[in-house]
Amino acid sequence: MAYEGCGEQLGAPCVNHTIHQKMLSMLPRCLQLIEQCNAWPTDQNDACADAHPYCTEMVYLYRVTGLNTYDIRKPCIGDELCYPSGNMIGFLKRADVISALGAKSDIVWQECNMDVYAMFARDYHRNFNYTVPPLLAAGIRVMIYAGDMDYVCNWRGNKAWVTALNWPGKAAFNAASDVEFRVGGRAAGQERKYGNFSFVRVYDAGHMVPMDQPAAALYLLKQFLRK
Predict the structure, then answer these.
(1) Are 188 and 133 in contact (CB under 8 A)?
(2) Are residues 44 and 90 in the same domain?
(3) Rg of the chain over CA atoms, in angstroms?
(4) How many C-beta atoms lie closer than 10 Å to residue 142's C-beta?
(5) Does 151 lie in the same domain as 100?
(6) Comparing C-alpha atoms, which of 109, 103, 115 is closest to residue 90?
(7) Same-domain pairing of 5 and 112
(8) What does each C-alpha distance from 209 to 3, 30, 171, 172 come to in angstroms?
(9) Domain boundary among 66, 97, 125
(10) How does pLDDT run across 28-81, given as a tens digit for each residue?
């Protein structure tokens, strides 16, 4: 995504050739650690502990460019989350908002609690897609969506695991076309769908799809709830 993906979508790679080669050289070991991590029934093994810092180093190689991890078009502003969030934080710390949400007044809201994040570090490279087929089998609608300008949870990687997912509708889903949809008279993205499973690529949106493309996000939500 950082090299070919940025090249295709932005006209130039997000990282230089040297960094790209470094990423490629790290990939086999990263995949090996992920495979070893998932070979265990739980995350309590050294491979899961080692996979997180090793594999996320490739994200940091991207970060040294100064670009936003969540939107390849933008610079990273502020802390690791790359977005100025003072207004949002102030709003969610207001007593009336806390009361309206039914949240505990003695807990201070944080955009990202790093203590909680650290507790999930061993799960970071565990495969949880096995939870999706039972939902589909039960007739529950599932939609996976991604903004096509996101780096860290990019649409290419999401589409890869979605098309690799083993479920009864796999062949029909993979044979389906990516159909472009329009919102407000303009192309807003592509959807691939079969039965109760769909994958959506949202154009010109980063990680925060509702923030970048609110009309498209609302359209998708309404379509999903309407079906």
Answers:
(1) no
(2) yes
(3) 19
(4) 17
(5) no
(6) 109
(7) yes
(8) 22, 28, 29, 28
(9) 125
(10) 999 999 999 999 888 888 899 999 999 999 889 999 999 999 999 999 987 778
